Amino acid sequence: GAVVSQHPSRVICKSGTSVKIECRSLDFQATTMFWYRQFPKQSLMLMATSNEGSKATYEQGVEKDKFLINHASLTLSTLTVTSAHPEDSSFYICSARGLAGVDHNEQFFGPGTRLTVL
Amino acid sequence: GQSLEQPSEVTAVEGAIVQINCTYQTSGFYGLSWYQQHDGGAPTFLSYNALDGLEETGRFSSFLSRSDSYGYLLLQELQMKDSASYFCAVRDGGSGNTGKLIFGQGTTLQVKP
Q: Is B45 within 8 Å of A108 when comparing Cβ atoms?
């Protein structure tokens, strides 16, 4: 099956710093990537949808200026948490969907990034 | 608004059969998916129903009734490794590269010896 990787898997940072998380589709081209956030024992909450080469579409309540998303190529999307605060500590998961014809009914998930802000 | 309802917890014994129900209310509907997630891990795809009826994949089966906005995941011959969280998710957009997955709150399945 299709593989999606994320880096880093874990990150601890100080309050006020920025953290960049990378999401890569390793063996397919992902025209659409999704970023989710998951708090302990809770569901996956969609933060934004990004299409390669265009601006991300953010869900209601998600601050665009705080969570910067870039989808510069068909295999890479990045999420930057700017001026991170302890309440941003969470599990961030990316997901990728390939081109039509590559099992377009399925989203492939990355392994997630555990962010802890001190 | 959009909502998916599923039980928060289910407990069963090894070898048993368990059914996890999901009802949904979404603005668009282009299929119901099920995902498994172990603690600290990423969601893994289990099944997808676009049309009414039962889809079977090994020990797992999934059912959909669009008229009832209802589906379920059936796990047979439960094993200890099946202990995990199970999420139903609705795709609210069309085929191709539109739409997004909206997830339910998840059901924690505990399998006991």
A: yes
- Model pLDDT for residues A60-113, shown as the tens digit of each residue: 999 999 999 998 888 999 999 999 999 999 999 999 987 654 454 578 899 999
Of A43, A106, A107, the CB nearest to B104: A43
Pairwise CA distance, residues A105 & A31, whole Å: 13
Characterize B79-104 residue by residue with b for buried, 16 or more Cβ atoms within 10 angstroms of its Cβ, and e for exposed. Answer: eeebbbbbbbbbbbbeeebbbbbbbb
* The pairing of beta strand A10-13 with beta strand A113-117: parallel
* Cβ pair B97:A49 closer than 8 A: no
CA neighbours within 13 Å on the CB side: how many for A27? 4
Question: What's the pLDDT at B64?
Answer: 97
d(CA B37, CA A10): 18
Handedness of CA A90, A34, A68, B26 (dihedral sign): negative
3-class DSSP state of A88? helix
